[in-house]
Design brief:
Blueprint lengths: L1 H5 L6 H21 L2 H15 L17 E3 L4 E9 L11 E8 L6 E3 L4 E9 L11 H4 L2 E10 L2 E14 L6 E2 L7 E2 L4 E5 L3 E8 L4 E3 L6 E2 L5 E5 L5
Antiparallel strand pairs: 1-14, 2-3, 2-13, 3-11, 4-10, 5-6, 5-9, 6-7, 7-11, 8-10, 12-14
Length: 234
């Protein structure tokens, strides 16, 4: 049981810790009363709730090509699209967006797609529509993280990418403890969206992006290489 608790994300402590305490009290009372069916029922319900906050250990892939982008979340690719302008891109330039839908059954931890430095954070209030609808990605509450990345050993050549956390109908709590200036490593955990939602990866220079997934594909945060961004030399 202790090992299981060690696999729960600290981003959800305020939710799962009370669940653990209540579960322990109820199980103790029901065991004392000899109500074994109630003990089983409490354990099943509580473990189901705790599963929303699971944080499985993962070994990040090695030998990735230059410009490799790992999935920022577990889930199903719900869209791959291009836009003419996006605030995460320098000079509000064009972008390739890979959108991932997280169901209530998915791990809800967000991970950095690559090495980078946080240069901007923008929280936008909005609605809480069903995350499976296309409209939700536009109008729902969201948090946009803009990161500066370097291209290999070209320390003077940088550009920005974005990761956007979007709340859903059930998921109304976006957790992101990042601050401007924080440096992230590829696959590093940086927050979560509780209970189900959408996460977007936003990349510059759409013509130089090779997408390795399509709509309907299943991906895992920090494990699946979903795109490659051709290094920019100037």
């Amino acid at each position: 049981m202790l090992y299981a608790f060690m696999l729960l994300t600290p981003y959800g402590t305020r939710v799962w810790l009370p669940i653990v305490v209540v579960m322990a009290i109820l199980v103790g009372v029901f065991v004392w009363l000899g109500w074994w069916p109630a003990v089983v029922g409490v354990l099943v319900v509580c473990l189901a709730l705790l599963s929303f906050f699971r944080d499985p250990w993962r070994r990040l892939p090695g030998d990735l090509p230059p410009g490799a982008m790992l999935s920022p979340a577990d889930g199903t690719v719900s869209a791959v699209l291009e836009v003419d302008h996006h605030p995460a891109i320098a000079n509000n330039g064009p972008a390739k967006i890979i959108r991932i839908f997280l169901s209530v059954l998915n791990v809800h931890i967000n991970r950095s797609p690559c090495d980078g430095e946080v240069v901007a954070l923008r929280h936008t209030a909005g609605k809480f529509l069903n995350a499976q609808t296309e409209e939700s990605a536009v109008v729902n509450e969201s948090n946009l993280i803009t990161m500066r990345i370097m291209h290999g050993d070209l320390s003077d050549v940088t550009e920005t990418i974005g990761v956007r956390q979007v709340a859903g109908m059930i998921a109304r709590a976006i957790v992101c403890p990042l601050r401007i200036g924080d440096r992230l490593k590829r696959g590093q955990k940086f927050g979560m969206i509780k209970f189900g939602s959408t996460t977007e990866l936003i990349l510059p220079r759409p013509a130089d992006v090779t997408v390795h997934v399509k709509k309907g594909d299943k991906v895992k945060g920090g494990l699946t290489m979903i795109a490659t961004l051709k290094p920019c030399r100037s």
